[in-house]
Amino acid sequence: MGDIIAWLLLGLIAGALAKFIYPGNQGGGIFSTIGLGIFGALVGGKLGTILLGSNSAAASASAGALTIGSIIFAVLGAMLLIFLWGLLVRK
Description:
single chain, mainly alpha
């Protein structure tokens, strides 16, 4: 149960920070922000693990740990997903 709460908290933090940092209006409410942050943590964690190795802060992002490093990688992953979402819905 604690892991699910950690994932939701990490997702909320990462999604909110990514939407705050990334310019533009992508829409979506609190649930899309949490989902974006959770998927961003997975994407950022996997990419960071590939680039930096399994002992990095990126590995903790993909595991849902609440550390500064994991939040940074989760936010970077969420920003990447916001960018890709913007490309998909562009008119």
